[in-house]
Amino acid sequence: MGAAIVGGGSFLAGCGGGDKGDSGQQTASKTTGADPCGDTTGLTEADLQMRKNLKYVVVSTEKGKNCANCKFYLADQFGEQCGGCELFKGPVHPKGNCSSWFAQDQG
What we know:
The protein is low in regular secondary structure.
């Protein structure tokens, strides 16, 4: 499988135990809290692991590097506040970041 991104422990802590999806795989449940893009409902454990492998975080700690200015960011994929990513499934906060950040083309 390709690369993936997941938030730190605090991001996943809100996911809870989840429930079994139609495939029988564990899925995350809707998160609560301050992250408007934290709903990972329907993602499989493999999807969540991909996010974790890419070290996705809700708020970037690297100056000038955030999802909104990343080549892989898909704006408004999950509503007005949350985008998506070409590298992993689920909502992405525009102020987030991961280890696969790549600058958008400037031309």
